[in-house]
């Protein structure tokens, strides 16, 4: 490579670095001066939505355990799942009787209303992983500190079957009050 070509390459690299630094300074100034809303009810930009949706889907799929749900689906476990859901999840995701949560539009992105869709359609292990670890910047907490793995898998079974529960379980669920939090089994330390 000749000296003149090397100089042009170095100038080009230097210019690229300068442009990147200036872009970061401008973005930082916009954020620091309040030009970028951090409110939970603010609509995200198209770029933010694209990056968030793509990265969370890849993160979940790439990190979820490749294991089969160890909890059997039966009336007892579905009833326990309904108790866990109604006590811990319904306040955000909607409750029995197709109640839509008032928090649905209080955050962005909006909280999925599982009652309207009959539960999540992701694989069991992905749903478990989201329950256990939450999703940053969405309001979805990590339940690993409040629930043990067995209860989380039980909740997965309920979520995956909530659109077609046995009549006895549906009746019990319909009678459950929606509370902020139902104590669950202690999480492992």
CATH homologous superfamily title of the domain at 64-175: Cytochrome c-like domain
Assign a percent range to the helix content: 40-55%
Strand content: under 5%
CATH topology of the domain at 64-175: Cytochrome Bc1 Complex, Chain D, domain 2
Radius of gyration: 23 Å
- In CATH terms, what is the architecture of the domain at 64-175? Orthogonal Bundle
Structural class of the helices, strands and pairings?
A: mainly alpha
Mean pLDDT: 82
What string, H for helix and E for strand, traces the elements in order? HHHHHHH
Give the CATH level 1 class of the domain at 64-175. Mainly Alpha
Number of helices: 7
Compute the separation of the termini in Å.
Answer: 61 Å
Low-confidence stretches: none
Number-wise, the strands total 0
Largest sheet: none
Describe the global form: elongated
Textual characterization of the structure:
The protein has 189 residues and is mostly helical. It has a domain at 64-175: Cytochrome Bc1 Complex, Chain D, domain 2 (Orthogonal Bundle). Helices cover 54% and strands 0% of the residues. The chain has helices spanning 3-32, 46-63, 75-93, 114-117, 124-133, 149-161, 167-175. It is elongated.
């Amino acid at each position: 490579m000749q000296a003149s070509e090397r100089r042009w390459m170095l100038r080009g690299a230097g210019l690229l670095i300068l442009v990147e630094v200036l872009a970061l300074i401008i973005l930082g100034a916009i954020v620091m001066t309040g030009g970028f809303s951090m409110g939970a009810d603010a609509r995200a930009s198209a770029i933010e939505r694209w990056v968030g949706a793509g990265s969370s889907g890849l993160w979940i799929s790439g990190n979820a355990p490749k294991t089969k749900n160890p909890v059997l689906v039966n009336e007892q476990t579905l009833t326990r799942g309904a108790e866990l859901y109604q006590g811990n999840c319904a306040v955000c995701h909607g409750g029995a009787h197709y109640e839509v949560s008032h928090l649905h539009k209080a955050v962005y992105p909006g909280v999925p209303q599982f009652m309207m869709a009959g539960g999540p359609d992701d694989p069991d292990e992905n749903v478990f992983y989201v329950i256990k670890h939450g999703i940053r910047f969405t309001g979805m907490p990590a339940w690993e500190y409040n629930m043990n793995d067995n209860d989380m898998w039980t909740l997965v079974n309920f979520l995956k079957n909530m659109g077609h529960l046995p009549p006895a379980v549906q009746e019990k669920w319909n009678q459950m009050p929606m509370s902020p939090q139902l104590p669950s089994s202690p999480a492992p330390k």
